[in-house]
Write a structure and sequence with these properties.
Blueprint: H1 14-20, H2 28-32, H3 49-58, H4 103-112, H5 132-140, E1 159-160, E2 164-165, H6 192-202, H7 218-224, H8 232-239, H9 258-269, E3 286-289, E4 294-297, H10 310-314
Antiparallel strand pairs: 1-2, 3-4
């Protein structure tokens, strides 16, 4: 079935799935991997035509293709392997393995109890729009800020998936999905917790979970025409000599709302690299006051009044 070699007699056709606004129960785990992601970006992410077709035809609920009022409801007749109905799963993590349940049993719960499990895209308790960081914190039943390093600094030696350093997440939602990593065991939105704990802990600044003491504001950066010191390497490496206004032509984002975050980060933290300002200059005898953003007179020194005399020079 998974390989597309045969079709179960009871399997709903795409038109029926769309009509009922439900995902194909035979590929429910596949569909749930896209919870919170933009299915229309699948081709841009490098997936082939067959993958994209399966996603759009077999996952209409997850991909939000049901219109404005989808019918995402629990099965009224479903009873799981332990004898519990869907209502019994409200508040529980449907994406983790539980004692007494096989993987097949958990998948059956996910397919039959979408509303109780919090998988309905249009349900207010599980919306995939807006701040994905808040959604992740809600789903995990924890606050990611509690995981941040006490010193509010990124670990320069931390590497994600042997490839990405903390700086790779500047301007993005702090999610592995934002860099197109798709762990095969991820069964749904609750499953992100184990994967993200180390990322949130080791990269709190890049993830936007804390602001280091003394970090300059965007206004301060504009006044001095400098890039944010905590994002300076990201600004210079990625955007030096580039047209920041055309960033959408070279950056692919898939999470809903991530474009706004990237745009804000780029222009608020990289004003110098993006050419949004002009470096201030001070005249002779003055020095730049970087706190008050003004030029002040230099403190008079021994020879400030003129050229040293021969006698003074000898001394």
């Amino acid at each position: 079935v998974t390989c597309g070699i045969c079709e179960p007699p009871s399997r709903f056709q795409p038109s029926k799935l769309l009509e009922d606004c439900t995902d194909d129960a035979y590929v429910i785990a596949f569909c749930l991997r896209w919870t919170g992601l933009n299915c229309t970006k699948a081709m841009d992410m490098g997936f082939d035509a067959r993958y994209v077709q399966t996603l759009h035809t077999r996952c209409p609920l997850t991909c939000g293709k049901c219109g404005s009022s989808p019918s995402c409801q629990d099965s009224s007749t479903f009873v799981d392997a332990s004898g519990f109905d869907c209502a019994s799963w409200v508040g529980h993590d449907c994406s983790s393995m539980h004692a007494g349940y096989t993987l097949k049993g958990i998948l059956q719960v996910q397919a039959a109890c979408r509303s109780s499990c919090g998988f309905c895209p249009h349900d207010s308790s599980s919306s995939t729009s807006g701040d994905i960081g808040q959604s992740i914190r809600r789903l995990s039943r924890h606050d990611t800020r509690d995981l941040a390093r006490s010193s509010c600094e990124d670990n320069p030696n931390y590497v994600v998936a042997s490839t990405f350093v903390c700086g790779a997440f500047v301007g993005r939602f702090c999610s592995y999905a934002s860099l197109y990593l798709e762990p095969r065991w991820l069964l749904g939105p609750h499953g992100v917790w184990k994967w993200h704990t180390s990322l949130w802990t080791e990269c709190p600044v890049s993830c936007g979970l804390c602001d280091p003491t003394g970090r300059p504001s965007t206004w301060d950066l504009m006044q001095e025409c400098e890039d944010d010191p905590y994002s300076a390497s990201w600004c210079s490496y990625n955007w030096k000599g580039q047209e920041c206004n055309a960033w959408e032509q070279s950056v692919t984002l898939v999470l809903q709302g991530e474009s706004d975050r990237f745009n804000t980060t780029l222009f608020s933290q990289c004003p110098y690299t993006c050419g949004l300002c002009t470096k201030p200059t001070c005249g002779p005898g003055t020095v730049r006051d970087r706190v008050n953003h003004t030029c002040t007179d230099c403190f008079p020194g021994r020879y400030a009044a003129g050229v040293r005399s021969g006698a003074e020079a000898a001394v």
